[in-house]
Amino acid sequence: MAIDLSASTVDVAQMKVVPRRHxxxxxxxxxxxxxxxxxxxxxxxxxxxxxGVVGDYLLSGAVLxxxxxxxxxxxxxxxxxxxxxxxxxxxxxxxxxxxxxxxGAFVWLFRGTPLLVQLLFWNFISAxxxxxxxxxxxxxxxxxxxxxxxxxxxxxxxxxxxALYESAYMSEIVRAGILSVDRGQFEAAQSIGMRRSLLxxxxxLPQAMRVIIPPTGNETIGxxxxxxxxxxxxxxxxxxxxxxxxxxxxxxxxxLIVATIWYxxxxxxLTIGQFFIERYFGRGARPQAQGTPIGQxxxxxxxxxxxxxxxxxx
Amino acid sequence: MSSAIISAxxxxxxxGRVDVLKGIxxxxxxxxxxxxxxxxxxxxxxxxxxxxxxxxxxxxxxTVHGQLVGYRERRGRLYESSEAEICRxxxxxxxxxxxxxxxxxMTVLENLTIxxxxxxxxxxxxxxxxxxxxxxxxxxxxxxxxxxxxxSGGQQQRVAIARALAMEPRLMLxxxxxSALDPELVGDVLAVMKNLASEGMxxxxxxxxxGFAREVADVVVFMDGGVVVESGPPGEVLDNPRNERTRxxxxxxx
Lengths: 314, 254
Hints:
The complex is a heterodimer.
Chain A: H1 23-45, H2 51-58, H3 61-92, H4 97-111, H5 115-123, H6 125-128, E1 131-135, E2 142-147, H7 148-151, H8 154-179, H9 183-191, H10 196-226, H11 238-249, H12 252-281, H13 293-302, H14 307-313
Helix pairs in contact in A: 2-12, 3-4, 3-8, 3-10, 3-11, 4-8, 5-8, 8-10, 9-10, 10-12, 11-12, 12-13
Chain B: E1 4-15, E2 18-29, E3 33-37, H1 44-51, E4 59-64, E5 67-68, E6 71-74, E7 77-80, H2 83-91, E8 93-96, H3 108-118, H4 124-137, H5 153-165, E9 171-175, H6 183-198, E10 203-206, H7 210-216, E11 219-224, E12 227-232, H8 234-239, H9 244-253
Parallel strand pairs in B: 3-10, 3-11, 8-9, 9-10
Antiparallel strand pairs in B: 1-2, 1-4, 4-5, 6-7, 11-12
Helix pairs in contact in B: 3-4, 3-5, 4-5, 5-6
């Protein structure tokens, strides 16, 4: 029915507003609730989860040692990968064609082969090069020479495998970050007389960080999980530690749950850390939209700190 | 009027097969304000960017402060300048961009001190003192701790001018400094520029602000198609243009 506002008998402003109904949402909610209830019932009533065993081993020495080694592998490999990734990205963006080609070839090689294959390669490197020596290539004298098996023990092989593989990915992330910085920023920095190295360090990389950090957080979480591949070369990290236990006790499922719980705990901690790093590098920028559920929760929890918002509201 | 700060003789610039500058001759003397006018694509901005070597010239001779831009002459040969030499030359030339290009991850104060501290080796404290003076001059003394995005376009551009001045330049380049601003903010920026001109700064300004050119410029240069069509005092070029193209452009703008 058409409403004629000029007719004084109709007072639209006083009418009751009925919100739009969303019946399908309730169907969705029902499906989700039923599924979740079924899962929880399974957790609680299926005796083969053996929650008692999970509790016994969750904080056991062998598992914690494995967790420690997983964290160590992730931290060292990621640190090397980030530094090497930045170097490779700068090489790919450099004006020197030799550097560009070398960096491109590196990324091609390490991104193009499976991590598992690379780990096995590093582990058996002594079969390829029994001795490693430092000297002048091709003709010169050898200064020192090592037995490859002693210089590259399993732990170093694992670090090399993880770090080199990851650095190929990190270099692409860093490169994308640098390319995302506006041309005008380069020109403004050049026009006040900054050299390229200074310009990169002070102007471009800090801004590229905003683009680099979120995928790097993903990569770190990925690295935490990729590090479980190292179990194939017999390094007792988290997965290998629980494997050693269930090989003995046959409590396979509860031990895998122990590992799962720890991976989830560390991933959660990393996600929280990522939130704070992102906020640091986002200073001076618009408040970022969305992010992970944990990030959204933290953002709500910590907005009273957000000085920039308060000031801009004034 | 003493020495020429910028001297151009037959300056050419081409991007691939496109000739943007086809032989520019002009002189800018110390303390002068020169406005470059002309339709878009006429090469004004390109010439400006050649002055501080953001673009390299493809032909002709361009000197700034008596030095060849991009080259050093030694024993009858021209050597391409090293990065250090280019940076030293640039640090004496302030540049203001159409889109401000403030560093968004730094506060206003840091924007002003980063150059003097990292390039000139000034102490942080001395740089900050000078920065506060300059911000007062452009009327933004209360915005030290603000980030660029919290400022209006006009305020950002005034900060950008202060950032350029913090390097104590001997020459200022302005590349359409008011073109990206809302009309009501243009006046503040022009006022700062007028003030600067009255203090005797040598300025090369690419602009579409005819009023500013008429009032402040010592020399107005009209460019079209990569050449200087007409140049002279604003009264002559703007009011009695001799060239047909100048006349057509001015009647379209005014």
